[in-house]
Amino acid sequence: MIDLYYWTTPNGHKVSIFLEEVGLPYRVTPVDIGKGEQFLPYFLTIAPNNRIPAIVDDEPADGGHPLAVFESGAILLYLAEKTGQFLPSEPRQRSEALQWLFWQVGGLGPMAGQNHHFRNLASEELPYAVERYTRETSRLFRVLDKRLADRRYLAGETFSIADIASYPWVLPWQRLGQTLEDLVNVRRWLEEISQRPAVAKAYDLVAEINADPAPWLSDRSLISVGGR
């Protein structure tokens, strides 16, 4: 059993998507970041950086006591190695999957997150910050589009943790001030991933956990607008 400490954000969706894809049994403990529950003492023993998501694996491979893992990229890597799924075993493909996983956690996620903050949440308008992070998000989307020009997924023809990590941060492109009109490869990739049953189940979890989610964080219907 995997205990998932979760809230309805892109980083939270990464782990719920993976768990639904592989069919691992899991139970959700909501951590309402709007109420500051990520700072509660019990949660800090699991995730010392006070950020969701985090997991506790009740049955780690070494047979020892339950193992806590924090940071979404580290969780995806841990679960991929535990299950033998969504991380290629061939060295070159594995390297590509990990490179693009780290691209997401080190670039796409932070830049899109700052974009969202200054565009949608900041208490005062800061045009420089909005322009800077909107422009950097746009650059990263173009990097993604170029990568997908001659391959189905980020690591090649096989869906991997790199795609699982990136999808929830690309899905809310409208809220990030982006357009997909010229990013035909990104649009194709988004549409294909959106049709995966496990992705639908992971996003359905939102309604059970958060009665009033921010649409940009949780709404899969955003892809249906056809890239405009």
Task: Summarize the topology.
Elements lengths: L1 E5 L3 H13 L3 E5 L10 H4 L9 E4 L9 E4 L1 H12 L7 H31 L5 H21 L13 H10 L13 H11 L2 H13 L5 H4 L10
Parallel strand pairs: 1-2
Antiparallel strand pairs: 1-3, 3-4
Helix pairs in contact: 1-3, 1-6, 1-8, 4-5, 4-6
Which terms summarize this structure?
single chain; 228 residues; alpha+beta; Glutaredoxin; Glutathione S-transferase Yfyf (Class Pi), Chain A, domain 2; 2 domains; 4-stranded mixed sheet; 4 strands; 52% helix; globular; disordered C terminus
Give the low-pLDDT segments: 218-228
Rounded radius of gyration (Å): 17 Å
- In spatial order, strands of the major sheet run 2-1-3-4
Query: With helices defined by DSSP (H or I, 4 residues minimum), what is the helix count?
Result: 9
- How much strand content do the residues show? 5-15%
User: How does the helix and strand content classify structurally?
Assistant: alpha+beta
What pattern of helices and strands is seen along the backbone?
EHEHEEHHHHHHH
Please give the CATH architecture of the largest domain: Up-down Bundle
Assign the CATH class of the largest domain. Mainly Alpha
Number of strands: 4
The 3D shape can be described as globular
> What is the mean pLDDT?
93
Overall domain count: 2
What's the end-to-end separation, in Å?
41 Å
As for the CATH topology of the largest domain, it is Glutathione S-transferase Yfyf (Class Pi), Chain A, domain 2
**Helical residue percent band:** 40-55%
